[in-house]
Design goal:
single chain, Alpha-Beta Plaits, five-stranded antiparallel sheet, about 30% strand, elongated
């Protein structure tokens, strides 16, 4: 397998996708943050001093995904047709799972946008909660699935 972001001399470059067919593409990424029980309850009840943690993190995740090409040097600027960030609160583990869905019709995929959206959403939760819980842990970030493009459908078999 070849790495596509290097030329024959080993120099980094942005892949030329001009010859690729435009297709509808979608990617879903997930990740989690684990909080202390008191912090988890404050987020769930909406009683954190900084405001509605999940509402702010949702907007932050969407905004972050839109800036992916500015953050990751060799990513293409993509015309996104859908971005959504949702949260699942798992009371038994004091876990908040973020799910980011990105969609486009274009010549390259949106995996990086979905992954960036999840990361920014989780970092925003951390930022808004750090005064209450400095031991939060972010992890388990992965691409759950993607569709479209030459490689077609991918479903993460490890999850």
């Amino acid at each position: 397998m070849e790495f596509t972001h290097f030329d024959s001399q080993g120099n980094a470059w942005m892949v030329d996708v001009s010859g690729k067919k435009e297709t509808e593409r979608e990617a879903v990424a997930k990740g989690s943050i684990f909080l202390s029980r008191p912090c988890f309850e404050m987020v769930r009840q909406g009683s954190m001093k900084k405001g509605d943690v999940l509402a702010v993190a949702q907007v932050a995740g969407i905004m972050g995904a839109k800036k992916t090409s500015e953050l990751i040097p060799l990513c293409h600027l993509i015309h996104l047709t859908k971005l959504a960030v949702e949260f699942e609160l798992k009371e038994e583990t004091c876990e908040i799972q973020a799910v980011c869905t990105a969609k486009t019709t274009g010549q390259t995929g949106v995996e990086m946008e979905a992954l960036t959206g999840v990361n920014v959403a989780l970092l925003t939760i951390y930022d808004m909660c750090k005064a209450v819980d400095k031991e939060m842990e972010i992890g388990g970030i992965y691409l759950e699935r993607k569709t479209g493009g030459k490689s077609g459908e991918f479903i993460n078999s490890r999850k």
